[in-house]
Write a structure and sequence with these properties.
Helix content: 40-55%
Largest sheet: 7 strands, parallel
Number of strands: 10
Strand content: 5-15%
Order of helices and strands: EHEEHHEHEHEHEHEHHEHHHEH
Strand order of the largest sheet: 1-10-9-8-7-6-4
Number of helices: 13
Distance between the termini: 18 Å
Amino acid sequence: MLRNYNMLPLMVGSLPYTDPNKACEKVKQYFDKTPCWPQLPVKDSREGMIQQVVNGLPGISLVDGKYIMDIESADMDEFEAFVTRAMTEDYSQSGLADYEASGLYAMLDTEWDEPVLVKGQLCGPVTLALSIFDKSGKPVIYDDTVTDLITKHIKLKAMWLENELKKISPNTLICFDEPSLTAYGSGFFSCSPERLTSLISEVESCVQGLSAVHSCGETFWPIVTNTSVDIISLDAIDYGQRLNLYANELADFYTRGGSIAWGIVPTAAEKIQTTTAQQLTFLLKCIFDRLMFHGIDETHMYANSFITPACGLAGLDEEDAEKALSLTKEVADAIRR
């Protein structure tokens, strides 16, 4: 199935600005047809990926810099109210506050000229469940009951976010950020790929528009291709040459209508300062050539693709971040057919 996105530029999410209006100006300058709300963790740490979504979880507390979730200590009335909202999919009380998403609210106040789509992002269930601990210090991902609550919590957040983004465009994209997928296969992570697939599938099921998963490291991609997610967002500049390992899975993913957001623009300052759009375009075409050699259809690959930075840009200064945004647009324009 051809989607005909044809290498549209996209953002991953975070930017280093402290002024949300300025951040939205940059989004509009470089991504006017595919705006993404800018997360601004430099402005307020509560806009960080984990901090942004934990509010509202029953029994959650911050202890010595770690999030601890203890259901037994949760207020029973609040716990029952949460379960009721989750069962009825009532997301009215699951919104992000202004201090958690100032860029989102600035974006909603910005005028946009008929975008092709509008993108939002949230921490995914695997990463969140690995970032919250029980009283013994063990990640709650190994507790099915708690993980189920976390998954339902993210679903409500995603439904609220999608509803807000529809105020900008009827064509929405919700991306679940899952950097912790890179832990799969390590000696410190014993979850099966089927379990991880089921967690992602559960949160993705609530999305009415397009859905995506972003992972910016070495990832076992069948975890994601075995879901119904529409878009895979990956770090192509560092790991694209290894994607031929998953050529069969990616070919099936493209055939069923899936798309890939190619993170070909570097996010390290020294690379941004010394890399040109021509170099990045050449590198991406080399990755494409290798995948085509392994059976990926060229027409599907070009039509069902986006161009992005490899990851978020909040760790850069404003000048380098803007250079990365500019490179993203330049590469998209150069490789588009």
